[in-house]
Design goal:
Blueprint (H helix, E strand, L loop, with lengths): L1 H19 L1 H7 L4 E7 L5 E7 L2 E6 L7 E5 L2 H10 L2 H9 L3 E5 L1 H16 L1
Parallel strand pairs: 1-4
Antiparallel strand pairs: 1-2, 2-3, 4-5
Helix pairs in contact: 1-2, 1-3
Amino acid sequence: MKFSFLLYALKIKIQKAAKKSAEFKEHLKEKNFTLVIKTADGKRGRFFTFLNGDVISKKGDDTNANVSLIWKDADSAFKIMASGNNEETMKALQNGILKLEGDAQLALWFTGTIKMMMKA
């Protein structure tokens, strides 16, 4: 439940930052793609579609996503994502707690976007 709420809150924060900051809105126009963040069992997740500066996000999966961040379980995902600690995220990748499928460059762009959002 906490993981699902965190993903929903992320959607709201991205959309608010885009309304508040012209610079952030311009940044969002750089890429058009869909990213999914979900659990390995597929029970929890949310997709984010970036399209011409707009962000569309809905609960669930998108099988046509360009990149997927797949967490071993919701508790680990919440703990690591909520910490905001990039080192913990990298450890999760190394230890198989987090898997990346698809375009790694888009995943990096998304990570940078989240950092930028926090400052907007």
